[in-house]
Backbone:
C-alpha cells in the first residue's frame, strides 16, 4: 500500500449505487470516456493530409498537404498555423534537431528552417524543385532525402548543402533513419535499403531489394531498426542495419506509412487503410489499436516526451492517445464488459477524491487500481487482489504528490480502464 494513500473499501447494493451517483453526484455509472484509446484533436482543419508529425517536449508539429505547418501544445484547444515566412505550404517532411530547430521539407520549395518553434521561417540554401520526402537531424548535421535527386547534407543548419549519395543506387529516397550511434539507413522507391556508417558520405546496399518502395524507417533508442514498405509489410534489424528479417505476424495491412516508438521500446506503425498497429515484443506480434480513431488512412505518427502518441490522418486531422502509452497495454483499449469505472468525484481535487467501480462478473476477479503520473511512473497502488462481484468505493488522498495530471488505471487481466485525474495545489 503506497504511503499517504488511505483505502476505504465498502460493498454497496447496485440500486443504492445508482441512487447515490444520480442524486448526489449527478453521474451515470458508465465507462470513463478515457477508455477510448484515441481522441480527436479537432484539427488541423482545411489542410489536407497530415504528411508529417514531430514532437518537441509536449508540443506537436504537423506538416500538412496544402496548409503548411501547425503546432499544438499540451493544454491548447486548437492547432496554431505557423506560416510566417513559409512561402511553400505543401509540406512533405519535418525534422527537429537537438536544439529544437525545426526543419520543413516541401514539394517544389526545398527546405525551410525555424529557430523559434515555427513562429517564423527562413529559406535554406536547398531550394531544389525535387520534393523533400524525408528529413533527419543528428549530431550537428541534417540530411534531406529527395524524390529524384538523392540525398543532400548540411552541417551548418541549412546555410549550405552538398550531395551525400555516393553508392546510393536509387535517387528516389523515401525514408531516412539514424540510430543513436549514428548509423544511417535510407529507404528508396526502387532499390530497397542502403546503409551508411560515415554520416552519409557513402552508402552500401543491405541486400533488401524489395520491389516495393521503403516508405518508413525508424530506429529505437536501443539501435534496433524497423522498416516498412508499400505492400511489403515490416522488417527489423537487430545488428545495426546489416541484416533484416520480416516481422508481420498480426499485421493485417502491409502498406506502411510511418513508424515510431515510445520510451519503453513499444513500436507503432501507421498504415494506409488499416489504422495503427503496435508491438511490444520487437515486432514478433502486432495488434491493431483503432478504438476511437476517426480515419484508418494514417500518414504519420509521433510520440511526445510524456509518451502521448499522435496520429496524423489523410483527411480527419490528428488524433492523440487518451493516456500516455507507457501507462497501460494499448490492447486494453477495447471496452471491458465485466467491470465498469465511474468518473472520480470531485475532479479536479486537492485533498481527496472518491473512485467507484463495479464488478459485473459471476465470479470473483483479480483486480488492481494503480495511479500513474504524466510520465507513466506508478505513484500509488490502491487495490490489488481477488474481489467478489459488486460495487466498491476507494478514497485517494494524494498527500505527497505535486499538482498536475494523473491517470487512474483499473485493471483485470489484460483489460484496463483509464481515467484522467487532476490534482490542484
Residues:
Amino acid at each position: 500500500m503506497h504511503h499517504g494513500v488511505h483505502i476505504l473499501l465498502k460493498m454497496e447494493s447496485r440500486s443504492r449505487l445508482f441512487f447515490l451517483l444520480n442524486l448526489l453526484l449527478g453521474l451515470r455509472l458508465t465507462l470513463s470516456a478515457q477508455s477510448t484509446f484515441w481522441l480527436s484533436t479537432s484539427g488541423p482543419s482545411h489542410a489536407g493530409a497530415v504528411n508529417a508529425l514531430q514532437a518537441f517536449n509536449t508540443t506537436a508539429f504537423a506538416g500538412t498537404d496544402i496548409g503548411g505547418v501547425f503546432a499544438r501544445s499540451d493544454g491548447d484547444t486548437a492547432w496554431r498555423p505557423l506560416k510566417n515566412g513559409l512561402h511553400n505550404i505543401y509540406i512533405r517532411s519535418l525534422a527537429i534537431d537537438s536544439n529544437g530547430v525545426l526543419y520543413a521539407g516541401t514539394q517544389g520549395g526545398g527546405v525551410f528552417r525555424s529557430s523559434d518553434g515555427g513562429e517564423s521561417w527562413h529559406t535554406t540554401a536547398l531550394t531544389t524543385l525535387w520534393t523533400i520526402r524525408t528529413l533527419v537531424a543528428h549530431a550537428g548535421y541534417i540530411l534531406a532525402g529527395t524524390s529524384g535527386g538523392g540525398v543532400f547534407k548540411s552541417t551548418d543548419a541549412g546555410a549550405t548543402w552538398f550531395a551525400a549519395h555516393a553508392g546510393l543506387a536509387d535517387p528516389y529516397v523515401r525514408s531516412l533513419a539514424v540510430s543513436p550511434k549514428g548509423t544511417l539507413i535510407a529507404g528508396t522507391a526502387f532499390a530497397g535499403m542502403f546503409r551508411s556508417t560515415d554520416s552519409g558520405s557513402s552508402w552500401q546496399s543491405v541486400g533488401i531489394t524489395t520491389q516495393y518502395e521503403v516508405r518508413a524507417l525508424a530506429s529505437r533508442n536501443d539501435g534496433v531498426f524497423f522498416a516498412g514498405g508499400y505492400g511489403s509489410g515490416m522488417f527489423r534489424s537487430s545488428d545495426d542495419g546489416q541484416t533484416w528479417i520480416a516481422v508481420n505476424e498480426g499485421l493485417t495491412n502491409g502498406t506502411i506509412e510511418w513508424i515510431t516508438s515510445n520510451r519503453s521500446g513499444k513500436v507503432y506503425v501507421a498504415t494506409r487503410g488499416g489504422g495503427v498497429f503496435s508491438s511490444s515484443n520487437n515486432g514478433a506480434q502486432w495488434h491493431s489499436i483503432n478504438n476511437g480513431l476517426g480515419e484508418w488512412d494514417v500518414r504519420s505518427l509521433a510520440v511526445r516526451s510524456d509518451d502521448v502518441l499522435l496520429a496524423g490522418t489523410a483527411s480527419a486531422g490528428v488524433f492523440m492517445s487518451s493516456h500516455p502509452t507507457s501507462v497501460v497495454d494499448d490492447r486494453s483499449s477495447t471496452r471491458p464488459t465485466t467491470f465498469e469505472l465511474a468518473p472520480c468525484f470531485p475532479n479536479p481535487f486537492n485533498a481527496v477524491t472518491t473512485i467507484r467501480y463495479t464488478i459485473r462478473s459471476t465470479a470473483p476477479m483479480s483486480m488492481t487500481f494503480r495511479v500513474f503520473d504524466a510520465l507513466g511512473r506508478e505513484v500509488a497502488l490502491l487495490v490489488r487482489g481477488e474481489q467478489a462481484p459488486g460495487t466498491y468505493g476507494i478514497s485517494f488522498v494524494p498527500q505527497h504528490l505535486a499538482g498536475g495530471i494523473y491517470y487512474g488505471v483499473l485493471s483485470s487481466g489484460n483489460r484496463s480502464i483509464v481515467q484522467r485525474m487532476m490534482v490542484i495545489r
Q: What stands out?
A: Confidence is low (pLDDT under 50) at residues 1-34. The radius of gyration is 24 Å. DSSP finds one helix and 35 strands in the chain. Residues 14-25 form the longest helix (12 residues).
